[in-house]
Amino acid sequence: DADVTQTPRNRITKTGKRIMLECSQTKGHDRMYWYRQDPGLGLQLIYYSFDVKDINKGEISDGYSVSRQAQAKFSLSLESAIPNQTALYFCATSGGQGLGYTFGSGTRLTVV
Amino acid sequence: DAKTTQPTSMDCAEGRAANLPCNHSTISGNEYVYWYRQIHSQGPQYIIHGLKNNETNEMASLIITEDRKSSTLILPHATLRDTAVYYCIVREGLSNFGNEKLTFGTGTRLTIIP
């Protein structure tokens, strides 16, 4: 099993629909992150969480919300999807300062 | 925010060493340099990181200049599977409860030529 699992892998949704992307990890790490990647560009941070009670906005949090249901689970929601949210979404986890990140395989989201 | 500058693309012959440069002239004294790679829309993969000393692991070596304003990632014997986008990142934030996050640029697209 992968250390970081994202579901679904691919999703097509209509404008205005609510959608949730889920992420779970088996690393036992406290820190979890959601990133977005647009074609040909680097990753942009949406939200991050240092523990279950800690949620922080990243660079591009508008239009998104998150929920940290447990240490191992961090979900990303689009309350009302719009076409410019079409992108590849990655969840990541980290063990803390000085340690690398482990990324999931990504969710490819298309909003039509 | 500390910024990095990398070439947009590079080619390297299979079996040769791939040397990927990165400039980070505004790096602070306690900021680390991280390298990740991303193979065709997969999740980025951690390669190596360092503070001031050169580092080596099973994947690569990281050479950081004495003034820490630049670094080089070395893949000693490149294979076709090393074709990917390589990101050089300076980690922001200092403390365990600080603003620790990674800021990804556009990276270097490395193509290994058979």
Quick gist of this model?
The complex is a heterodimer of chains A (112) and B (114). Chain A is an all-beta fold and 112 residues long.
Describe the 3D structure:
Chain A has 112 residues and is mainly β. Chain A is built from no helices and eleven strands. The relative contact order of chain A is 0.34. The mean pLDDT of chain A is 92. Classes of the chains: A mainly beta (112), B mainly beta (114). At the A-B interface, strand 4, strand 5, strand 9 and strand 10 of A face strand 4 of B.
Helices, strands, pairings?
The complex is a heterodimer of chains A (112) and B (114).
Chain A: E1 4-7, E2 10-13, E3 19-25, E4 31-37, E5 43-51, E6 54-57, E7 65-70, E8 73-78, E9 87-94, E10 101-103, E11 107-111
Parallel strand pairs in A: 2-11
Antiparallel strand pairs in A: 1-3, 3-8, 4-5, 4-9, 5-6, 7-8, 9-10, 9-11
Chain B: E1 9-13, E2 18-23, E3 33-38, E4 45-50, E5 55-56, E6 61-64, E7 70-75, E8 84-90, E9 108-113
Parallel strand pairs in B: 1-9
Antiparallel strand pairs in B: 2-7, 3-4, 3-8, 5-6, 6-7, 8-9
Helix content, binned percent of chain B: under 10%
Q: SSE order of chain A in H/E notation? A: EEEEEEEEEEE
Give the averaged pLDDT of chain A, no decimals: 92
Overall shape of chain B: it is globular
**Low-confidence residue ranges of chain B:** 94-98
Give the C-alpha Rg of chain A.
Answer: 13 Å
Structure annotation, total helices of chain A: 0
